[in-house]
Amino acid sequence: MSNAPVIVLVRPQLGENIGKAARAMLNFGLTEMRLVNPRDGWPNPSAGPAASGADIVLDQAKVYATTADAVADCEHVYATTVRKRGVTKPVVGADGAARLIHSQPGRHAILFGREASGLETEDVALARHILTVPINPEFGSLNLAQAVILAAYEWSRIGREQAENTGPLVQPTAEEELLPPAPQDDLEGLIAHFEKLLAPRGYFFPESRREATARTLRSVLTKPGWNHLEVRTLRGILSTLERPERTSD
Amino acid sequence: MSNAPVIVLVRPQLGENIGKAARAMLNFGLTEMRLVNPRDGWPNPSAGPAASGADIVLDQAKVYATTADAVADCEHVYATTVRKRGVTKPVVGADGAARLIHSQPGRHAILFGREASGLETEDVALARHILTVPINPEFGSLNLAQAVILAAYEWSRIGREQAENTGPLVQPTAEEELLPPAPQDDLEGLIAHFEKLLAPRGYFFPESRREATARTLRSVLTKPGWNHLEVRTLRGILSTLERPERTSD
After folding, report:
1. Residue A97, domain member (yes or no)
2. ipTM of the complex
């Protein structure tokens, strides 16, 4: 099936859980796994037996030092969380995420946090959407492989549903609209460029509010889903603003 | 949620898998488990630890000698199978079964077979529907708890969907997200502010391309549909950029 998402396990602890996640993925045809800084290194001898034959997923898994590196080539990033957080990002279920993946061009990545603690705030900040599965408020105990299998199952189910029914949910119109959002590292470059200009002018002052201010800036800039041409235009604007005014004008 | 199905584990082998199934159920609010002739008897000391706190499900689990006994009080029986069998019964997915459960009165039971071999032909014969989850034809390796969690997840998801009567694809959560796009004159103010900063730095040079350049700037800035708070953030950014750098920094 087309447009398979990348499954990114962020700082996973047990090799066994990496193997189970691989098995969960392959049941529904997902094969691309990325690992961010796995606690016990990689490869991990406990992963293979737990994968029950899903070796193709483990053999092709790639390791990255940071979450930002792992999604640098991805146009759409989903952060899987259980708890509601104070983030102002759109929230989708596993089904909603699957519909977006099947309808929007570009590479999609789904982030899963470490077993005990989930994703860190800075991992969530990279994402455009929060993926959350509504579970029993009195007993929320989804493990890593179960979260992965629900995402994989929905990707497969929605793909079949759409193949049987009509076209994509959102029909792009103009040619411009067909350009996918810029990959994440373009966006990171843009954000860094803004910060570089703003910091020496006191934008992040006082220091105590620095993080909150940076988060606001990030959410304003990640909302649009600009394509790479639009990001290039904005980079041009920032470069222009770095120049001094021409007083002779 | 109303009309929760009964989960029937037929001749399960490992207590650990019974515990995992209980945990999978309770995540999505299912609490009624029945066991048909569990291999190692009942209660089973391995079940509790694997249930990770879903003790309420295990404590209430009832044991039956035969599958027919276990579903004697159920109006609707679903037999979960992976392989296609030569049975002439209607086949539903986990989503289809969930729709039937929510729409048809009476007690529904879902049968899951033993870990290695699945349901026997005589168990399947008791059912009115076959429940099967389409999986990767080259790698079908769903374990018992995973099959249970997919059924429980779909029961929960379809229940919410029917309660909400198909809400929007992307659910806004924070109040921020509910804000409408800023009015046009906010946007015009933002565009004018950009132009005021950019013009004296030669951004619109050469004059012959001025109009096209301004149009590009405008389309990048109108695409996001920023709300008035987001526009205010951007105005703050531009005001900051008008300030000289603090060389003392």
Report:
1. yes
2. 0.71
